[in-house]
Specification:
This protein is of the alpha+beta class. The protein folds into two domains: 5-163, 2-Layer Sandwich (Ribosomal Protein S5, domain 2), CATH 3.30.230; 171-257, no CATH class. It contains ten helices and nine strands. It has helices spanning 66-78, 81-88, 106-121, 128-136, 142-147, 182-192, 210-216, 220-223, 225-233, 236-240, and strands at residues 5-22, 25-46, 54-55, 90-95, 151-156, 160-163, 171-174, 246-247, 254-257. A hairpin with a 3-residue loop joins strand 5 (151-156) and strand 6 (160-163). Helix 1 (66-78) packs parallel to helix 3 and helix 6 crosses helix 9 (225-233). The longest helix is centred in the middle third of the chain and has 16 residues, at 106-121. The radius of gyration is 18 Å and the shape is globular. The relative contact order is 0.19. The model has no long low-confidence stretch (mean pLDDT 95).
């Protein structure tokens, strides 16, 4: 019997710079790094189901669940009846460890891991590139998690993912009891900070390894454009920030290298 369990790892953004805004969305350049010690688990468990069933995400309405969105997107794209039939005979069980609204990509990672596992167990004749393209319609972080690189430079709307070879990194994470809504943070950035971006200020960062970047640029505000926006939207972040820690994504997690 095929293994029907997969890990959905968290990520941190070593740096995240907004490069522009077009078609209603922000473009970016960022270094995503997988967090090896923190992951959710997605499992397909035999069960007779009248409809698509997810357990372990009780606080998230089905229509808003990224795994359900991934299921719908795969069905619509492939038209493969094997997917429908499989989930009449299996339920999805999620063991959550990655906190929500924390800048760690938990929802996106769950959806991407789900798609990768469906591809395997349903023998989908679809390339990783095509899977990533489908994933990009659900969320900007999904392509990174679908390619499953330990470290990568991510650009465009999140759909351009280029593996970056570097040493494996270990992180300490600090997630305060504050949830940062990604949509709110991006809207705040657009309103208050978009006009201030200077593209030349981070030229060449994508060529430097993550450890060097963090040693060279100690200011988390310079490294992550969304940190300032998050601090405007969620002022308590200023009070609980720790010296020497960096900020991941739209927050609220801080991290440092071990």
């Amino acid at each position: 019997m095929k293994q029907m369990t997969i890990k959905a790892h968290a990520k941190v953004n070593i740096f995240l710079k907004i490069t522009g805004h077009k078609e209603g969305y922000h473009t970016l350049l960022s270094r995503f790094v997988r967090v090896e010690h923190l992951y959710d688990t997605i499992e397909f468990v035999p069960c007779i189901c009248e409809s698509f069933t997810i357990e372990g995400c009780k606080d998230v309405p089905m229509e808003s669940n990224t795994i359900y969105k991934a299921y719908k997107a795969l069905n619509e794209h492939t038209g493969d009846l094997d997917i429908l039939n499989f989930f009449y005979a299996h339920k999805v069980v999620v063991t959550k460890r990655i906190p929500s609204q924390a800048g760690l990509g938990g929802g996106s990672s769950d959806a991407a891991a789900f798609m990768r596992l469906v591809k395997e167990v349903c023998h989908l004749m679809i390339s990783t590139d095509e899977l990533a393209k489908i994933g990009s319609t659900i969320g900007a972080d999904l392509p990174f998690f679908i390619y499953n690189y330990p470290s990568a430079n991510v650009s465009g709307f999140g759909e351009i993912v280029e593996a970056f070879e570097e040493e494996e990194l270990c992180f300490a994470l600090y997630t305060p009891p504050i949830g940062c809504d990604t949509t709110v943070v991006y809207k705040t950035f657009k309103m208050h900070l978009l006009d201030n971006i200077t593209l030349c200020s981070f030229m060449g960062w994508e060529r430097l390894d993550s450890r060097t970047l963090l040693e060279m640029i100690a200011d988390p505000i310079l490294l992550n454009d969304l940190y300032s926006a998050s601090r405007i939207a969620y002022p308590k972040l200023k009070e609980i920030a720790k010296e020497g820690w960096y900020f991941s994504g739209s927050g609220s997690t801080f991290f440092k290298l071990l």
